[in-house]
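Illustration 12: HTTM domain-containing protein.
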Amino acid sequence: MMLWELAFSQPDAMHRLEWVRMTLGGTIFVLSRMPPYGRFYTENEATLYSPGSWLPPLGRLQPLLRTGVSLLALLVAVGLGGLGTAVALLLAFGLLDRYLASLSPRLWNNVFHVHLFLLGYCIARAAPLLAPPAQAERLASFMLTAMQFQVGLVYLLAGISKLRVGGLEWFTQGRTLLASTLFRGTALGRRVVAVPAARRAMGLASGAFELGAPALVLWPAMHPWLAVMAISFHLGVLLLMRISFWHLWVFFPALFITP
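Figure caption equivalent — predicted structure in token form:
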């Protein structure tokens, strides 16, 4: 059975979304404490702020907003406050991230999926207040399915962007991998990419995974294997290239493994 056939009938969808909620809270808390949301941009707001932004400069309010996001994230992670806390976090984290985009429009954190997951959780959590239980469970299943589709879309677009920029040579020659690893990779990574056959194998493996992962997303029976492969892929990239993209793969146990 394929994923679209289960879109409205995934078993224990709301229970699984509660695991997503815990992951969301922990992820947003960690993100909000990281340097991109720190003092540098606020202290240099007058220089960096985009004059075309609809959002007014926050100035000294930014640290308060950042602290509020961190506290709300902790409450969501432990399940306190219910739907109201989740909606407040959705709005506050969206505002904080939009503010950061106004200060660095060409270097925006790639956390769009986190916002979508939180929005989907809020919709599923609100459904029992507005619809009969059976319909609310169907909507929760649909939100879970949409999150899984979003993961497949992230990988598909990553693979397509490599094809657009570098063509098939991106995967078969590994020159981009070589340059990136030499620039910011680990000592182990630099030794590995120094071997032409190894970096070509890395390029081919990357292409096969990113372009093939969406097919595995559509096949629920393969979801646990997809999660294991994806986490292993990202840990390997982290070990060699210091690129983790952790705020995506931490959701995989909740989305693809949790029974």
